Amino acid sequence: MNLKDWPWSRSSPIKLKQVRAEIQSTLAAQDFETPGNLSLLLLGQALNQPKTWLLTHPEYEIQPKEFSTLQKALNRLLQGVPLPHILGEWEFYGRLFLVSPDVLIPRPETELLVERAIALAGRLPRPLIADVGTGSGAIAVSLAAELPRAALTATDISRPALRLARRNAARQAITSIHFLQADLLLPLAAKFDLICANLPYIPTATLQELDVAQWEPTLALDGGPTGLDLITRLLHQAQTRLTPAGSLLLEIESTLGQETLALAQSVFPNAEVTLRQDLAGRNRLVEIHSN
What is the pTM of this model? Predict the structure, then answer.
């Protein structure tokens, strides 16, 4: 019997272990990866309980309201809605961030940018950092939490994204970030020790073929015809907004590694420019150190 077909009646209560087994079976039949973990995430949201509680209370009787919430969440997942949008939050660099269709879902590959930013800015007594195109604020909040002496400015052109980023900062009790609606760095005259950016970098034609475009904002994905439109603009803006020994970190589309590297070298001919790979061995980050 499918979960959606189970009748609810107080005379025949449904136990947690039964529901979990049925969810796992349903997801496995639809070729979802890690159906066991997915079942725990959906149950955790519906019951507002951590994974450890779910694993140690298999005989718990699911309440009608909990069952209804769980059923709706499972149906949305089967319809293709991204799991982070169903849960309303997603983990990034060891912290949970609120997400919504207004922002890009934080990806694990972006943690490489955060790691490099911490390594570079951590050497400075009070680094000035800009996070351009902050979206959910995952990068800026992570850096503020790991670098308490840093002063951060986080920009985004989207007001809804900035509202969510501010909520994420408040959720982590972070007060050292100045959020600003801006087109990249245009209104800023300050010079930064470090500029970070995970800008839209998917070529328009490629994006139209991807399922991600159905669920996440085009504004956060579309990099123009070549995928390099916003990156090109930011590189030129950054020429006058880096301190003499400042650095710029750019997450990139893996297939555009060499093109982005050449572009960065042309804009910063006297800088040290490096192309770095993520854990999967894909080109993921362009790192620029001005001299």
Answer: 0.91
What kind of architecture, by CATH, is found in domain 3-79?
Answer: Orthogonal Bundle (1.10)
CA 110 – CA 93 distance, rounded (Å): 9
What residues does 269 pair with on adjacent strands?
Answer: none
Alpha carbon distance 260, 240 (integer Å): 19
- For 163, the token pair is 């509202």
Distance CA 119, CA 291 (A): 18
Per-residue pLDDT in tens (0 to 9) along the chain, 291 residues: 345 555 444 456 789 999 999 999 999 999 999 999 999 999 999 999 999 999 999 999 999 899 999 999 999 999 999 999 999 999 999 999 999 999 999 999 999 999 999 999 999 999 999 999 999 999 999 999 999 999 999 999 999 999 999 999 999 999 999 999 999 999 999 999 999 999 988 888 888 888 888 888 888 888 899 989 999 999 999 999 999 999 999 999 999 999 999 999 999 999 999 999 998 999 999 999 987
Which CATH number does the domain 89-289 belong to among 2.60.40.1180, 1.10.3720.10, 3.40.50.300, 3.40.50.150? 3.40.50.150
Q: At what angle do helices 159-171 and 138-146 cross, to 10 degrees?
A: 30
Q: How far apart (Å, rounded) are the C-alpha atoms in residues 46 and 69?
A: 6
